[in-house]
Amino acid sequence: MDFWLAMLVFIGAMVACLCTNVSLSVALAAGFLCFWVVALRRGYSARALVKMAIKGGKDALGVVRVLLLIGLITASWRASGTIAVFIAKGISLITPSLFILIAFALSAVLSYALGTCFGVVGTMGVIFMALARSGGVNELLAAGAILSGAFFGDRCAPISSSANLVAGVTSTPIYDNVKYMHLTALLPLGICTVAYGVLSVLNPIGAMDTSALKLLSENFVLSWWALVPAAIILILPLCKVPVRWAIPASVAAATVLALALQKMPVGEFLRCCVLGYTAPDPALDRILGGGGIVSMLNVSAIILLSGMLSGVFNGTGMLGGLQGIIRPMEERIGGFPAMILTSIAICAVFCNQAITITMNDQLWERIYEEENASHRELAIDMENSAVMISGLVPWAISCSVPLEMMGVDARALPYGFLLYLVPLCYIFTKKIWFPSHRRQRAQVCAETKQAD
Fold this sequence. Notes:
By secondary structure, the protein is an all-alpha fold. Helix content is 79%, strand content 0%. Helix 5 packs parallel to helix 7 (139-156), helix 8 runs parallel beside helix 18 and helix 9 packs parallel to helix 19 (375-389). The radius of gyration is 22 Å and the shape is globular.
């Protein structure tokens, strides 16, 4: 009873934070204190709980370091003209009858380079939506295509915060996870490409507003050299260079370009890296402004507190009751479909992708271990459920913020094909990637029935 009371307080704090626009880290801190009291009432000492929290926090620190580096890279790419050149060159590739497909493809490429959904939607997404509206294209369809592309990189880019968080909580190598994420994305990606290609032909763009292109050319030197930082971040991971080295290498290249090519003063560039990029033109600032280490402090606090809370959950076995609810559901409909349902429930309540990931790990880790499933399988299952589902819950941060940036509502979600094709396709193809677990589980079930 004390656990459920603490959970209700936790949920109430989350709702209050969302309604008052207060950081969710406040609600997490409140929840941490509530569950701390529950653990004390169950006989755990404060010293033991501190050790549990520190252990969980240490596991999250690796992800926090990557997040701060991502904040650094998003600001430096803005200052160096990398994002500006990417957008400008992308706009030049637009063919009227392929506008939707190109919007999806370019959003996917940029999201894979940046590893962030918000960074793509807030820059390229805003511009493509302006082009769609001025050219008479269905804005809901355009927004859905952009959201699909943005979540492609948010799910499987080596520098993605969600991918690194999943790797961190499951103790799996990020590059092994990325390989499996690529493989499991092939079918849904192919379907999306065909679907957006057909819809592009049926919804061609008319006259395009080139004011955004003019704005970029007036404020940046649009040289191909500005794409070097993006090339570094795309190539080095293919060579298995750790993310913690690939990002600084890209930032170093962006620094040279910002100072030498864009003629930005050193002091202004350093301020940009910490506080975020601010464009001299207000219209341009609405498109490119942001990034920086400061932009990642809130999400870093959320992940750190989530890690500490997970440490307490893991050490006390406090989620055992919820696991007892999940097991019958998993036996009835299967592990991955059941994980989809838990992801929907967690994200619907807590409205946060990071919390959905960490709580799914706590709920499912022991179940996977008991069924002899690998941590890699757990990681890929979460990538194909928790990460993608967070983009489909209209009131969740991962969904509501991008939709607000693009000026559309939840009616655009049915056109975000990749968000639901990834989990749907994986339901039917998982046995291809993880056949051993399926056989082992069938054997265990058969032995159990014989024993009965």
